[in-house]
Automatic annotation (TrEMBL):
Organism: Loxodonta africana
Keyword Cytoplasm: yes
Keyword Protein biosynthesis: no
Subunit structure comment from the entry: Directly interacts with DKC1 alone, but not in the context of the core trimer composed of DKC1, NOP10 and NHP2, nor in the presence of NAF1. Does not interact with NAF1.
General function of this protein: Required for the quantitative accumulation of H/ACA ribonucleoproteins (RNPs), including telomerase, probably through the stabilization of DKC1, from the time of its synthesis until its association with NOP10, NHP2, and NAF1 at the nascent H/ACA RNA.
Broad class of the protein's primary localization: cytoplasm
Lineage, uppermost ranks: Eukaryota, Metazoa, Chordata, Craniata, Vertebrata
Family according to the record: Belongs to the SHQ1 family.
Protein name: Protein SHQ1 homolog
Gene Ontology MF terms: unfolded protein binding
Pfam family name, one: SHQ1-like_CS
Transmembrane segments: none
Alphabetized UniProt keyword annotations: Cytoplasm, Nucleus
UniProt GO BP: box H/ACA snoRNP assembly
Length: 227
């Protein structure tokens, strides 16, 4: 999972967390906060913060999403209104786990009951290591490996290696020149081409004829405007 870029600010009553998640599925996200714990998940992003002060869920919390900027803004009520939270700019400290996992001894006594040996159930470790988000400069990328409208984008997939298989067919588009991408696209099209499917669409075109005959509402409006 990816650690998103984020920023913290505050006023006397609220701690505000702004999280930049441009490639997230905004319809599927979760937010959890209690005391000094804050967790945010929106695939493929996960953010866990250890806050310098306590927050509380009391009904006054708020959240919003800016679709143009890809930013979630979440306002968390302070447990003690008026308290000033120190160190909001110390990102590494905020990302550090609140406590280390308990280290098991190298040698321990094993108790065997009459019913047999029972395996310990391992819970998922939410205290995973995180590192602050680092923006990849376009100057560090191959200038030939641009894509998108007008070839104005690059580096978009640098931090999405684990999710690429669900989005695109090319394994590493940021280091694949346009000519090579075109060759791979043509090869994939040839491999997936089905002559029977093509002939069926060519001769059984009733559905296509209905689509071609359809006139949207703006056709008459445009005709009246130019008349």
């Amino acid at each position: 999972m990816l650690t998103p870029a984020f920023d913290l600010s505050q006023d006397p009553d609220f701690l505000t967390v702004a999280i930049r998640v441009p490639y997230a599925r905004v319809s599927e996200f979760d937010v959890y906060f209690e005391g000094v714990d804050f967790k945010f998940y929106a695939k493929p992003y996960f953010l866990r913060l250890t806050l310098p002060g306590r927050v509380v869920e009391n009904g006054s919390e708020q959240g919003s999403y800016d679709a143009d900027k890809g930013i979630f803004t979440i306002q968390l009520p302070k447990e003690t209104p008026g308290q000033h939270f120190e160190g909001l700019n110390m990102l590494t400290a905020l990302l550090a786990p609140r406590k280390s996992r308990t280290v098991k001894p190298l040698v321990e006594e094993i108790a065997i009951s009459e019913e047999g040996v029972e395996d310990d159930d391992e819970e998922f470790d939410w205290e995973i290591e995180q590192s602050p988000y680092e923006e990849v400069s376009e100057g560090a990328l191959n200038p030939q490996c641009c894509y998108g409208f007008g070839n104005l984008r690059s580096g978009v997939f640098q931090r999405l290696q684990d999710e690429l298989s669900e989005v695109i067919d090319i394994g590493d588009p940021d280091s694949t020149p346009a000519a090579e991408r075109r060759q791979k696209r043509q090869a994939a099209e040839l491999a997936k081409f089905d002559p029977d499917h093509y002939l069926a669409d060519f001769f059984e075109d009733e559905a296509i004829e209905q689509v071609l005959k359809y006139k949207p509402w703006w056709t008459d409006t445009y005709s009246k405007m130019v008349a």
